[in-house]
Amino acid sequence: MSLALSPSALYIEGTDETPTVIMDAEKDIFSIEGRCIPEDSTDLFAPVMAWMNAYAKAPKPDTKVEIKLLYFNSASSKAMWEFFSLLRKLENTNPTVEWHYHDDDDEMRDAGEEFASFFNLPFDYVPYQNEDDDEDDEFIF
Predict the structure, then answer these.
(1) Strand partners, 12
(2) % of the chain surpassing 70 pLDDT
(3) First-to-last CA distance in the chain?
(4) Is 45 exposed, middle or buried (0-12, 13-18, 19+ CB in 10 A)?
(5) Max intra-chain CA distance, the chain
(6) Band of the pLDDT at 91, cuts 50, 70, 90?
């Protein structure tokens, strides 16, 4: 896992099993994107939670987090609960979540709705299609 950390930013390069994480207060980028099936979710989320705890001391008035997970396992789900719990507790800010999900992945949308309901956070749901989803299949005989 490649990690870059500064007081104002955290960058974790994604892999086949872990998402790319960008937390950059100066650029207003708070993003988690990719597959989230690490062997140990603590290794992935410990620096994220440490950075968020530092950010919580002086958060921006509006904090929008973009989540675009293709899949996450149960260990990652627990870590996400902790992340959203901390996001909800941010003082003097209006946290929002932009939850991206593939337009035919009802389970991923449902997961976002569960998080939103439990933490009483405003979620915007953004369906997307892969670029090749619109292409017609051609059969050559």
Answers:
(1) 3, 21
(2) 87
(3) 46
(4) buried
(5) 64
(6) confident
* Cα 5 off chain centre by: 18
DSSP string, 29-65: EEEEEEEE--S-HHHHHHHHHHHHHHHTTS--SEEEE
Helices (H), 1-141: 41-55, 74-88, 106-119
- In terms of Cα–Cα distance, which of 125, 58, 117 is closest to 97? 125
Q: Is a pLDDT exceeding 60 seen at residue 111?
A: yes
Q: Which residue segments constitute the domains of the chain, with CATH numbers given?
A: 3-132 (3.30.750)
| Closest to 1 measured CA to CA, from 40, 56, 55 | 40
Shortest CA distance to 29 belongs to which of 11, 46, 49, 15? 11
